[in-house]
What we know:
73% helix, 6 helices, mainly alpha
Amino acid sequence: MPESTATNAASYTTLRDTIESDRSLDLVLALWAEWKQARYVSLMLCRVQQRLEARMMVDNGIQVLTAGTSAPRRRSAATSDAASRYAIACEAEVLAMTEALKLQDEMPDLRSSSLLGILAKLEMIAGADRDIGDPTDFPWPHIASVLKDLKAITGNLYLSRPERAITRADVARYWNEATKFVTALSDEGPQRNAPVS
């Protein structure tokens, strides 16, 4: 594990240990912070994947993106490299979002000891719906109303910008895991189609 990734993992462990040792602090808030970071990293990786996808479309001469002129090109090593980076970016995004979903799944098992912890739980619920559903359908407007009321009583949850070093370490960790996975799949491909002796 690279040193920056180990530092990042240690910071989460330290936060959880601190909260667990001091019962006046709310473990839900630590979970919320980890979830928020995982979502942020998955959005960053989504943007990387989208940029690579756009480059691949333009490089392949798709007319819509090249002002109506088709520019067919031979498939080169650079195109193959771009496809490989795209596959890695897609897989890294999936890994990061899976981490966020795992953290969401932990939330119901935790008991909040503060109004801010309850607010954090509702933020996670509402945040999950922003990703997958229509926020105008029942019960989302009602949950948003409860969130607004709680924020009026407790104030907002702290809104700090994720530290760049931690975000980079997380992106690098998911990218490395995805690279290993995509490489293993590409190595398996030729073996799968090989004749049986």
